[in-house]
Design goal:
Layout lengths: L1 E8 L5 E9 L2 H15 L5 E5 L5 E5 L1
Antiparallel strand pairs: 1-2, 1-3, 3-4
Length: 61
């Protein structure tokens, strides 16, 4: 399992959510990230999910 990092920001740049995701691959991490965003109502907020090696897996501005 790899550890991915999900972060959500307000329009003012404040962190609204910092979370880690355990997933086998980028596709699974993206799916889990989208589910977590939906749980918290952050689908339309600025967010990113980053892989352990720093690649963007999920991004919305």
């Amino acid at each position: 399992m790899k550890t991915y990092f999900l972060t959500v920001f307000s329009q003012k740049g404040e962190n609204l959510l910092d979370d880690t995701i355990e997933a086998q691959n980028d596709e699974e991490a993206s799916k889990i990230g989208k589910e977590r965003l939906a749980e918290h109502g952050y689908e339309e907020s600025t967010h990113r999910c980053v892989s352990p090696d720093g690649r963007l897996v999920l991004f919305h501005r």
